[in-house]
């Protein structure tokens, strides 16, 4: 709830920045907010508590592997001219809701957790991986084509 409360104003500011054409401000705002939440909001309590903060088993099982996985999932954006297409944004939004659903089901120990988990692991995760691989391969192929059309003596900034 704290992260949601601190992130909503940042989300609103980022949406306003994008609508005004200031995309750099939006990206910097989101990245800065994430770094602040990870560094300050987690670091200060860890310093103040004797013995540090215990890390719950659920965080070790899902959140810690999930963060690098999200970073890897964002890598294809580097191939698409460092732009997030609408469908990519929609995909990440759906994945966020799936993650939130999993966390809620796990926290309440709901009966649907086992079925939800199996659907996510056996269907959604492979579908996302295949999509990311296909998009990455497509974009790398397009880059190779542009490079070949430009030729060895072409200008460095040519499309």
UniProtKB/TrEMBL annotation:
Residues 2-104 form the Sodium/calcium exchanger membrane region domain. It is found in: Membrane. GO terms for molecular function: calcium channel activity; calcium, potassium:sodium antiporter activity. It is a multi-pass membrane protein. The chain crosses the membrane at residues 30-49, 55-77, 89-107, 119-140. Pfam families: Na_Ca_ex. Keywords: Membrane, Transmembrane, Transmembrane helix. It comes from the Bacteria. GO terms for cellular component: plasma membrane. One of its GO terms (biological process) is intracellular calcium ion homeostasis. InterPro entries: K/Na/Ca-exchanger, NaCa_Exmemb, NCX_ion-bd_dom_sf. PANTHER family: INNER MEMBRANE PROTEIN YRBG (PTHR10846:SF8), SODIUM/POTASSIUM/CALCIUM EXCHANGER (PTHR10846). This is Membrane protein. The lineage of its organism: Bacteria, Bacillati, Actinomycetota, Actinomycetes, Micrococcales.
